[in-house]
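Researcher: I need the complex structure. Ligand is alpha-D-galactopyranose. Inputs:
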Amino acid sequence: MKKYSYLLLIAAVFACKNKPSSDNAGKFAISETPYGKIDTSAITEYTISNPSGMKVSILNYGGTVTKLITKDKAGNDGDVILGFDTLSGNLQKGNPYFGVLVGRFANRIAKGKFTLEGKNYQLALNNGVNTLHGGLKGYDKVIWTVEKLAGDSSLQLTYKSKDGEEGYPGNVVATVVYSLSAANELKIDYKATTDKATPINLTSHCYFNLSAGADSTIVNHELFLKADKYTPVDTTLIPTGKIELVKGTPFDFTVPKLIGKELDMVKGGYDHNWVLNRTGKDLESIATLYHAASGRFMEVFTTEPGIQFYSGNFLDGTLTNTKGGKKYVLHGALCLETQHFPDSPNEPSFPNTILKPGETYTQTTLYKFSVK
Ligand code: GLA
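Model: Output:
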């Protein structure tokens, strides 16, 4: 009997050794696929896969997450984020930040103005009268340097943002590490340093639809947000500075609720910052998203004080080069952008977003996928 098991073991080892090298089932791997060129720079799509077959694909352009493949309750793979089939899709005017890294300052800064250490700054205005997501050419539209880290489960992206870029002070070095775990978690670790005081607010702008293409909208997704409060906004989506209770309003997601339930009661749809219920700065579970038909369940953990829940209000079916030519219609996906509060540089009562020389900005966010 003992001899028989020994023979079986040898046979198993032999079988493994003779597997084609492209078959990475059962281990972590990172593959690279050419994705086009911007001027003379090669754009590459890196795909990290984990032992159970979850996959995340990332570009050096904008640090963009292009694909996120997870299993449904029947064990079928599906891509749970919106995106494009080709680089020309990503580069089109009006790409609504699909999957990108957002910086130097996520969300809006009122009239693109702030005062820091007695100096007035004027940023580029790219969203009506305001600055949105870092300006005309934010961190989402630049080429990051990518390094594969040991273990074949992480990619490190680095971008050096120059003093004066988009009107912001200070040379900033931003580092983002995307990691996939064996437990189907996509972790994003952000770090930044500067040589002059500057506002910093980094996030990821994935558009989730856990149905993986089966549902054209996210109205049947159930959302939970661990937040008793949110920051109301004016007509240009700038926070009024007030912090209000969600209780008794359509903004209450403290008990899991279908997104479609009260969506019509919010003019323009959800596009607000929720003030997370948290005490310290540890990585904490703060949101869940569930799509019953597929069984896909996503849990969000973060170190940040806020989350922007955006219900895809500007999607109108007009984007081109989308995955499989799919029409991305109104509310076709949602974003859960973990962040500091919008317009913080102009709201002294909001948590601080000013990074000073000698300090290191950090933020960690983790998206964990499972089925139920
Ligand atoms: C964020 C903003 C929205 C919108 C999207 C990108 O979520 O809050 O208003 O600009 O980004 O389209």
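Model: Summary of the prediction. The first helix runs from residue 2 to 17.
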